[in-house]
């Protein structure tokens, strides 16, 4: 009887030790709202590496009191910096003119900073704001120009990100 009880305890401990909490198949809420992508001059672009204040390559800020949104996302070659005021959900809202909406680190020093090309269609469209779980889902598009008259077209922009405030 002792041998059976010992075998039962040993098998139970072995099974319990082999279970891994990482085997849970439910999606992680930490990564559930961590998507940003677009095309720059037709080429796929995604942020990578660390952001400004944490390990995320994208920092999204939304201030509900005045409906102001700010997004900074980058990788080793470039940075996107969007700012706007949100009037309505589901409506294309113009981006604010900034002296720096895009930075291309692969260009020479004089040609790295791009400003919004105000002659083009530039917008952000908020599809969803969740103020309980603090995330935004949005689409965006813009054109920018630098001091050397190089232009970029950012199309198919999309993000689903948690925001800070």
How is this structure best described in words?
The chain has 165 residues and is mainly β. It has one domain: Beta Barrel (Lipocalin). The protein is 10% helix and 44% strand. The protein is built from one helix and eleven strands. Strands 1, 2, 3, 4, 5, 6, 7, 8, 9, 10 and 11 form an eleven-stranded antiparallel beta sheet that branches. A hairpin with a 2-residue loop joins strand 1 and strand 2. The longest helix has 17 residues. It is globular. The N and C termini lie far apart (64 Å). The relative contact order is 0.19.
Summarize the structure.
With 165 residues, the protein is mainly beta. It is built from 1 helix and 11 strands; from the N terminus they run H-E-E-E-E-E-E-E-E-E-E-E.
Question: Descriptors for this entry?
Answer:
165 residues; mainly beta; Lipocalin; eleven-stranded antiparallel β-sheet; 1 helix; 11 strands; 10% helix; globular; disordered N terminus
């Amino acid at each position: 009887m002792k041998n059976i009880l010992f075998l039962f305890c040993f098998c139970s401990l072995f099974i319990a030790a082999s279970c891994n909490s990482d085997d849970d198949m439910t999606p992680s809420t930490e990564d559930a709202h961590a998507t940003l992508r677009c095309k720059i001059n037709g080429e796929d672009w995604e942020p990578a590496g660390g952001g400004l204040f944490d390990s995320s390559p994208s920092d999204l800020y939304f201030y509900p009191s005045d409906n102001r949104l700010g997004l900074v996302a980058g990788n080793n070659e470039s940075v996107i910096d969007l700012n706007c005021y949100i009037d309505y959900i589901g409506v294309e809202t113009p981006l604010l003119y900034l002296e720096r909406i895009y930075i291309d680190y692969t260009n020479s020093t004089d040609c790295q900073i791009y400003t919004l090309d105000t002659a083009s269609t530039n917008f952000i469209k908020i599809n969803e704001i969740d103020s309980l779980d603090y995330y935004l889902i949005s689409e965006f598009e813009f054109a920018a120009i630098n001091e050397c008259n190089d232009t970029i077209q950012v199309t198919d922009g999309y993000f689903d990100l948690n925001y800070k405030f």
